[in-house]
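Support request, please re-run this one:
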Amino acid sequence: MGRFAPSKISPAWVLDLMTESSLLRWLAAEAGIRPLLLDWGDAGHVERRYDVAAFLGGPLSGALDHAAALAGRAAVPVVGYCMGGTLSVALSLLRPDAVSALGLLAAPWDFHANLSPQAESFAASLPMWQPVLEAFGEMPIDLIQAFFAALDPNLAQRKFARFAAMDPESARAHQFVALEDWLNDGPALPPKVAHDCLVGWYNENLPGRGMWRIGETPIRPADLRVPVFAAIPAQDRIVPPASARGAVRDIPDATIIEPAAGHIGMVVGSRAQRTLWRPLGEWLCGVS
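Re-run finished. Output below.
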């Protein structure tokens, strides 16, 4: 059994995008693994007051206990995608009793590594977004999408030009629509979570500088005492490879793969089964 934690800023179902394009269904059918997917959903009235520490101690820790109970074991593997990987490093250090192995899929860590000029500008402007958080009571998904769009301003034109040339009934076209639905969905960030992540991570780079703490616990990957798997897509523009490598640079025995893919293509692309699903499945079988 493995528990999967997706990003907090994107819907969970990219890991189960379509019947024929699903990492989780493949792991269940081909690797004999029972994957449990945490769906963050929209923050409720109480969760809107949470910071990152509260989410780690509440929903994430509770989901971990539930997974362990279902497995009938004290500890289970945890796999985190994107921001879910960053959070899963912290969870593994806060709950070493309940995490038996840690998988990181394009998980950002050194937030100042190889920043594009657009990302640098955005990171520098983050403290100025506080009035927006106060006015809306959350970080709207539209602002988060604007950040990702700024990383490659011409991407939308290129991808929709490719879509226009597709057979609308083809599998490629159906997957394109499913991915666009996923990309343009997602929960808003509670204000304290937005501050912790956008200011503490992107602006101050606390994880990359070894200065991130949850309560009295330093969150340093070098302190992990479980097997670690890291997938670092070589063509990732959302999480530069140098950022993801920051999480494993002090773990000499980590299993690392670097698929020739982007942030999303690594998970759902035409080569995903060969370059990510199978290596991850083999690793999970070996540590489960």
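The chain has one domain: 2-287. Strands lie at 2-5, 35-37, 76-81, 99-105, 213-214, 217-218, 228-231, 255-257.
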